[in-house]
Amino acid sequence: MRIAINLATRPFADLGPAIKRLRISMGILALVALALGLGLHAVHNRAEQARQRERALDAQIASVTQERQNYQNLMDRPDNAQLLKQADALNRLFDEKAFSWTLAMENLETVLPRGVQVSTLEPVRAKDGHITLHLRVVGPRDRSVELVRNLEHSRRFLQPRIIGENSESTNLPNQRMEPVSESNRFTFDLLAEYNPPTQEEARAASKMANNQHESAESASATPSSSATRRLVSSGPGTGGPR
After folding, report:
1. Taking the CB of residue 133, how many other CB atoms lie within 10 A of it?
2. Cα separation of 60 and 67, whole Å?
3. CA 197/CA 193 separation, integer angstroms
4. CATH of domain 101-171+181-200
5. What's residue 6's pLDDT?
6. What whole-number distance in Å separates Cα of residue 233 and Cα of residue 45?
7. Which pLDDT value is given to residue 232?
């Protein structure tokens, strides 16, 4: 069978490569659409899980708030007024016990001159939580004055002032009277406003102390390099003098 084609009116065009490229592009677009659909589904699932967690947290917060309100209503009853007073007294006692004697003594060591001793350290807490320290120190008069100057430049002890002084020589019977000089020993009563360290500063100081303690322990447990060389040189087979 013979087919007649008029090339003048219907020119021949090879559409095979174009159709092939079109099919490849359609396949790529289909894969991209599938990936986007899977990603959108995963994002939707995570968002739904986040919403569920948020609803669960809201329910827990509402439960805790309701429980707190119930306890508050219970404590507001007239028959619990005495219990509230006892709780306030206990809280004040806890605040007083919260005074760190160790930190106070460590801060005092940084400003205490040589030859001056602290015989009394008494903290007095005001109703607003402000702490005033009553110090009684014993030492030469010039060193005690130096202590006051050091307290004036300290971050922890503010507004130091001397409220009383007494010479030790006047308290002894049959003591020969001596002229007052800078080297005489006196007993001073001091007042200073105490600025305790914050919790962050206390934790940092505790961490630094622990690190220094561990470093000291490791240094004491590890022999020095010279001692190690001596131990090695004295070992058998080193060729040293016999």
Report:
1. 21
2. 10
3. 13
4. 3.30.70.2830
5. 59
6. 71
7. 38
As a three-state string, the secondary structure of 52-81 is HHHHHHHHHHHHHHHHHHHHHHHHCCHHHH
| Residues near 80 by beta carbon (within 8 Å), at least 6 away in sequence | 74
The count of C-alpha atoms lying within 13 angstroms of the C-alpha of 24, restricted to the half-sphere facing its C-beta, is 6
The answer to whether 136 and 189 have CB atoms below 8 angstroms apart is: yes
Quickly tell me which residue has 């760190």 as its tokens: 100
Q: Write down the pLDDT at residue 80.
A: 75
| CA distance linking residue 91 with residue 87, whole number of Å | 6
Distance CA 231, CA 130 (A): 60
Q: Helix (H) and strand (E) counts for the chain? A: 6, 4
What lies within 8 Å, CB to CB, of 111 at 6+ separation is: 147, 150, 151, 154, 157
What backbone torsions phi and psi does residue 174 show, to the nearest 5 degrees? 55, 30
Q: What is the amino acid identity at position 106?
A: E
pTM attached to this predicted model: 0.42
Task: Give the position of tokens 């000089």.
Answer: 181
Sheet holding 131-140: strands in order across? Answer: 117-125, 131-140, 185-194, 157-167
- For residue 117, give the amino acid letter: Q
| Averaged pLDDT, groups of 10, the chain, 242 residues long | 60 76 92 93 92 93 92 79 78 69 81 85 80 86 83 85 75 49 74 79 69 69 45 42 38
Any idea where the domains of the chain sit in the sequence? 28-62, 101-171+181-200
Dist CA 98 CA 66 (whole Å): 32
CA of residue 200 relative to chain centroid, distance: 3
Angle at alpha carbon of residue 100, lines to 95 and 106, rounded to 5°: 160
